[in-house]
Write a structure and sequence with these properties.
Layout: E1 2-6, H1 10-21, E2 27-32, H2 35-45, E3 49-53, H3 61-69, E4 76-81, H4 85-95, E5 99-102, H5 108-120
Parallel strand pairs: 1-2, 1-3, 3-4, 4-5
Helix pairs in contact: 2-3, 3-4
């Protein structure tokens, strides 16, 4: 699973990259630190999965997610933030993302769970899953 990590905080970016590296069959293929940059990098690299921070400089992670999901071959997008799980689910509905995971809960198990849920239950054209 080719993963693009989007976060503007260097320390968390490194932590997410490490978590992806510990997850079997997942590899980080790129990173971005703003919503605009995520759109450019995603268009170049065509990741399967984007781990998207919600609070980014420039366009928000929610808006970047909406734009990514309108592309010809949209990735699965998992939103990340510090909001609690209940609040995060509202953001999923607003943006069209596949899932929301709190930053404190992100690890190999949650990453695999979000991916395999998206693959088994894709919404519309989201998620290539193959």
């Amino acid at each position: 699973v080719r993963v693009l990590v989007v976060d503007d905080q260097e320390a968390f970016l490194r932590a997410v990259i490490a978590a992806v590296g510990e997850t079997a069959c997942f590899e980080v293929v790129g990173q971005a630190s703003s919503g605009e940059e995520s759109l450019i990098v995603a268009a170049e690299l065509l990741p399967d999965l984007v781990l998207m921070d919600m609070n980014l400089p420039g366009i928000s992670g929610l808006e970047a997610t909406r734009r990514l999901l309108r592309t010809e071959c949209p990735p699965v997008v998992v939103l990340l933030s510090t909001y609690d799980e209940d609040a995060g689910q509202q953001f999923v509905l607003e943006s069209g993302a596949t899932a929301y995971v709190t930053k404190s809960a992100l690890g190999p198990d949650r990453l695999e769970e979000a991916w395999f849920t998206a693959v088994r239950h894709p919404s519309g054209d989201r998620g290539r899953g193959s």
